[in-house]
Write a structure and sequence with these properties.
Chain lengths: 533, 194
């Protein structure tokens, strides 16, 4: 920590942070001096022990990764259309498969989980009455290791790595795949470190009079989400360890066969039911929080959303659905898998009912309810409800959707809902996050675009699943289904536009917030001089 | 919209390190449990199809039992280190740390012997691959635990506020106990049941 950093650390959260907190406050000169201010700002970012600053780093970088993932989504959807052959789009079917998998993994590990984690690192400590995150240095380490891991993951995939290939690999590609696995593991471990820091803040650094069930819904949902991540994501690390050991100890015997999609099939459970709902647990908290914030506190029993979020978190714990714990077909035909798939609808419907009741009881007029945050939260909840319904259909055996594109209908619905929820959270807490509100126009446009894009992706994938004659996870055998492929491409394009608009809105708010802070820093000493006798 | 910020607590809860270490240890245990589950599932599948898992007599129980005994003793010595750190008792603390690290090093050494003794090639089959993946991960976890214990104990005993820093030793001890439990699973699943 530098001496110019705001000293807000909790002394008991981390001894070093406590020492830093006791250090002198920044002088006005140091805050406004120009020659080395850029270096100071950079140094602050690198070594900060302020959890909120780490959260903002997560938000900024995950939004940039969001742009990258959305571009990949559009390209992959374009490859699915009749306009171009997938193999021609990326110079070979292997390359298309790499981008197809990279898009999905990026959306989960580089965009949604870190974005929600970043928002929570800023908001949750304030909500529970803590002055800083627990283990702020660990949180900072989690950000930098996540960033390094994500760069390794993406660059290695672009260099020919990835999670397997469809037809044959060279020696160099095998090495790049090992690097991809390493990057994936680093990213997961880094996110888990952040989750530990956040969960510890909620459990151990709450204000003295704040009971666990009294914490606001978003803080509660992040606690539930962190617990679900801690129970689920390490299983993926175990998978990666086995795959990596096999891949490097050539010739691969069972797990690390790179010349087929085997590696991907060992990890895709992260993106399927029930683990796919891990992304959406914080969304329920955002919805409950936004509705409470807009309608005013005291409407409805506070325990209800806590129970609903807890149930949804329980249904999202998905490590058990990893293929190697039982033969895949036995698993997916099994009662537990079907029950989890069907039950996921219940908490989402319950929250929708609870929120509807709150709105009705609030006796607000329709124009009063037309708040952008309420609309965004409602759209996110509707998308999540549609995704869980698609998930329920997917596990019903007569429909035969398990190995079809309907898998990605659930994924796209949940991911778009979580993205929408994250955007609503960025708008709702924009003062804490950026120091200035996000432009209403940018917020409205991003909500509309992501909502429409998510709905288009969900519907096109679900219908593709219904009309497919054979297992076809990549939906490449749908040549001739021009309409669905066009809808899919349009959906991906809308998603890209929505993420771009949201990123621009956040950048604008950050600039405005920085300008306000600098103006205050300049004004403060001047005011002190005037006030001095 | 600005969150209604609650006032910062006057007295913070003293469980921060304990809670954080429990959560992190739980996540590490889940990863190891995932590995063991893959091992058990693959072995069951191999046996169901009549395949041999390990070649007869290739995995000896003797060294594995000795490692279990060694780690069981380390459970006592690591708690000894925790107690010494709490009491800021440097002589006992350093002796306890040294003995625990010695036990850890002995287990790593025993694993070296086991690897030489079995002489498995990692690409000889699924059983051999998983043998190395499971036991190698355990060794890595044990080495990480030793490093954590060393750093936290030395910080606690050499620092000026040892009582606060003793929480770090306790956190490392929780992780160490988890490692010992993981080895108990390895001992039963890999070495006894083979």
């Amino acid at each position: 920590m530098t001496l110019t950093e705001p000293a807000t650390a909790d002394p008991l959260a981390d001894p070093d942070a406590g020492a830093a907190a006791a250090s002198p406050a920044p002088s006005a000169d140091s805050a406004t001096s120009t020659p080395d201010s850029a270096a100071q700002v950079l140094a602050q970012r690198i070594v900060t022990s302020d959890g909120a600053a780490v959260g903002r780093l997560f938000v900024a970088v995950s939004l940039l990764w969001g742009l990258f993932a959305a571009v990949l989504a559009a390209l992959v959807a374009f490859g699915r259309s009749d306009a171009v052959e997938p193999a021609e789009l990326f110079s070979g079917l292997n390359a298309y498969f790499r981008m197809w998998t990279l898009y999905r993994m990026s959306l989960l590990l580089l965009v949604l989980l870190p974005l929600l984690l970043g928002v929570a690192m800023v908001v949750v400590p304030r909500q529970v009455g803590a002055s800083n995150l627990a283990f702020p240095r660990a949180a900072l380490a989690s950000f930098w290791s996540w960033l390094i891991g994500s760069v390794i993951m993406v660059v290695s995939v672009l260099a020919g790595g990835g999670w397997g290939a469809l037809d044959g690999v060279t020696r160099n590609e095998g090495d790049a795949m090992a690097l991809t696995l390493l990057g994936t593991a680093v990213v997961i471990v880094a996110l888990l470190m952040g989750a530990v820091s956040l969960a510890t803040t909620i459990i151990a650094l709450r204000g003295p009079d704040v009971r666990l069930l009294d914490v606001p819904p978003f803080a509660w949902s992040m606690l539930v989400a962190s617990a679900a991540w801690l129970f689920t994501l390490p299983i993926a690390v175990a998978n990666i360890v086995v795959i990596y050991a096999d891949l490097r100890g050539r010739p691969a015997v069972a797990f690390g066969r790179a010349e087929g999609p085997d590696i991907w099939l060992q990890l895709d459970w992260l993106l399927e039911q029930p683990a796919v709902y891990l992304m959406a647990v914080p969304l329920l908290g955002v919805v409950a929080e936004v509705v409470r914030g807009v309608l005013g506190a005291g409407v409805g029993r506070p325990e209800v959303p806590a129970v609903i979020v807890g149930l949804f978190g329980l249904l999202a714990v998905g490590g058990w659905s990893q293929d190697y714990f039982t033969a895949p077909q036995d698993l997916r035909d099994g009662l537990v898998y079907v029950a989890f798939g069907l039950a996921a609808v219940v908490p989402v419907a319950a929250l929708a009912g609870f929120v509807g009741l709150q709105v009705a009881q609030s006796r607000r007029s329709v124009p009063q309810l037309l708040d952008l945050r309420i609309i965004g939260a409602a759209a996110a909840l509707a998308l999540l409800a549609a995704a869980t319904l698609a998930g329920a259909l997917r596990v019903v055996e007569p429909f035969d959707l398990l190995e079809s594109a309907a898998t990605w209908a659930v994924f796209h619905g949940v991911a778009a809902a979580a993205l929408l929820g994250a955007f609503v959270a960025l708008v709702h807490w924009s003062d804490e996050l950026f120091g200035a509100p996000v432009s209403q126009r940018a917020a409205a446009a991003s909500v509309a675009l992501v909502g429409a894009g998510g709905a288009a992706l969900l519907l096109s994938d679900l219908l593709s699943g219904f009309i497919a004659d054979e297992p076809d996870l990549m939906a490449l055998a749908l040549d001739g289904k021009v309409f669905l492929n066009v809808v899919n491409f349009v959906g991906a394009g809308l998603l890209l536009a929505g993420v771009a608009v949201a990123t621009a809105g956040v950048a604008q708010a950050t600039r405005a917030g920085t300008g306000t802070a600098e103006a205050s820093a300049v004004a403060q000493p001047a005011a002190e001089q005037i006030a001095a006798p | 919209m600005r969150t209604a910020a609650l006032p910062a607590p006057v007295v913070t809860r003293p469980r921060t390190v304990a809670v954080g270490s429990l959560l992190a240890t739980g996540a590490a245990f889940m990863a190891f449990a995932g590995l063991v589950a893959i091992y058990v599932q693959q072995r069951q599948q191999a046996r169901a199809t009549g395949q041999e898992w390990f070649p007869e007599g290739s995995v000896e129980l003797g060294p594995a039992g000795m490692m279990m005994m060694t780690l069981a003793l380390s459970v006592v010595t690591v708690q000894w280190a925790v107690q010494a750190a709490r009491n800021e008792d440097r002589p006992h603390g350093f002796v306890a740390l040294a003995v625990t690290l010695l036990f850890g090093a002995a287990v790593v050494n025993q694993f070296w012997f086991v690897y030489s003794d079995t002489a498995f090639a990692i690409d000889a089959g699924t059983a051999q691959l998983l043998f190395y993946a499971v036991t190698g991960s355990f060794v890595a976890m044990l080495v990480a635990g030793s490093a954590m214990l060393t750093v936290t104990t030395i910080r606690a005993l050499m620092g000026s506020s040892g009582r606060d820093l003793a929480q770090g030793v306790q956190a490392a001890a929780v992780y160490w106990h988890m490692c010992v439990f993981c080895y108990f699973i390895v001992w039963y699943v890999v070495f006894i049941n083979k």
